[in-house]
Amino acid sequence: MSFEYTEITDPQYVQNKEQTGEEDYIMVRAKQYADVPVSIPNWEPPAYCYTNRFQNYEKDLLGMEVFPDDVWVASYPKSGTTWCQEMVWLICNDLNFEAARAESLRTRFPFLDVSLIHDAKMSSFERVQQTPRPRFIKTHLPVSMLPKQYWSVKPKTVYIKRNPKSVAVSYFHHSRGIFYRGTMDTFVRSFVREHQFYSPYHAHVIGYHELHDCDNILHLSYEDMKRDLPAVVSKVCQFFGKSYNEQQLGKLYEHLSFKSMRENKACNYEDANQPREEEDRFIRKGELESWKQELTTELIEILDRWTMEKTPNIQHRQLFE
Question: Most CB atoms within 10 A, among 26, 179, 287, 310?
Answer without folding.
Answer: 310
